[in-house]
Amino acid sequence: MYIKDDQWSSISLLIRNIVMILDDLIALLPLTGYFLIIFILHILLPLPRLPLSNPISRRDSLFHFLAFLSLALTWYYMLSFMKASYLEYYSPQTPAASISSLALWLRNTALFKEAWRVVCLTPGRWWWSSQLCTYATGIWTVFLWNEGRLLFFRV
User: Fold this and answer.
1) 97-152 pLDDT tens trace
2) Is the pTM of this model over 0.70?
């Protein structure tokens, strides 16, 4: 049994399509892996009670409010930046989002460098960013750790 020329071209086309799909999925792996790890960590974190259950005290309410606000603002701005980057990459004619278009965008875009370019565009933006980073890695982190330890992770 031998394969005819037209069958070879079909097989070759099929293999090429499979390789392109795998290449696209590999390009999406870091971003999807990042979101997947965050999702899994939110599920696996041991909580004695549900985070959105009825708060016991004002302090508990404040912690819930600030934690939720931090999460909501962070994700809003992260997703807004990614959307703006995607639209800018494909401007003026942005295709409908697909695995191929997202993979091409991620392959040819350095999101981290783009974000820092936006942050460092003006001295004012850089100053605000440095203040937020100092606050987030200093006072805010200590506050959340302490409140979380007091409210949820009693050992």
Assistant:
1) 888 888 989 888 888 889 889 889 999 999 998 888 888 888 888 887 787 777 66
2) no
63 burial type by CB count under 10 A (0-12 exposed, 13-18 middle, 19+ buried) = buried
Report whether 90 contacts 101 (CB < 8 A). yes
Tokens of 88: 């800018």
Residue 152 and residue 48: Cα distance in Å, rounded? 6
Domain ranges of the chain: 46-151
What is the signed CA dihedral for 41, 43, 47, 49, rounded to 10 degrees? 150
pLDDT single digits (tens) 45-85: 655 555 555 657 787 778 778 878 888 888 899 889 999 99
Report how far apart, in Å, the C-alpha atoms of 33 and of each of 29, 80, 136 are: 6, 19, 24
pLDDT in tens, 15-33: 888 888 888 888 888 888 8
Interatomic CA distance for residues 52 and 25, integer angstroms = 35
CA dihedral sign of residues 134, 60, 38, 155: positive
Instruction: Say how far apart CA 17 and CA 15 lie, in whole Å.
Output: 5
